[in-house]
Amino acid sequence: MWRIGMIKKSALEIYRTFKQEIAKKKIYDSTRDSSLLFEPRTGVLRTKTYRAKYEGVDTVCSTCGQEEETAEHLIMFCKGLYPIVQDDGAEFFKALGFRDREGKIDFKQVDLTRRRLSDWWLKSRHE
């Protein structure tokens, strides 16, 4: 039933693709980093590309100035954010805390994502 409700919402594409069950997630707490992690998991991280749908903003990443500012770019590829992603084989859905085929969450990668999103959030407030 909950999956059917998500089909009509394009922003929830990633979430409905990788969400397998309704269950409490150990990746959230009451920090800003946790709130920032929730946004790309549900397709609504307020990147420039996302905001361009509703307002006239340039979509080039304000941190590195090289690519479009999307959630995937910020989390996986942006060279202007700390810490740098070291794993060339990293996958976007795992970085967001979705379970792999064995049902495991890569908590180290989730922590890296939270830290990168926090760095982006702080830097984007100063532009």
From TrEMBL:
Entry protein name: Putative tick transposon
Top-level taxonomic group: Eukaryota
